[in-house]
Amino acid sequence: MKMVVLIVDDDNGIRSLLEHYLRSKGLQVVTASDGEKGLAAYCANHERITKVLTDVTMPVMTGPQMVQAIRKHYPKKSPKITYMSGYARPVDLGDHMFILKPFNLKTIDEILT
Known about the structure:
By secondary structure, this protein is of the alpha/beta class.
């Protein structure tokens, strides 16, 4: 089964860059511009999504709030979560991966393996 990645970021440039890069690697990609849309996208594709790359701070619903809602709706399914932020790592992200923006694409390759 092909890896399907959900990218959630309110920055269109980052979202677009990641989408094009991951598609060039042969991955399937679903995108959303905030946590609420990310939750809806996950719910619509939950059987296929294996990895979530999400910004921490976004309007409407933050990345951590979205992940919490995903866990509540799908407690037996655990996609791998990587948080992204231009700020220092928040302490309340649990054991999920975290990358600091700006990042290079080699970092993306590393978190997908």
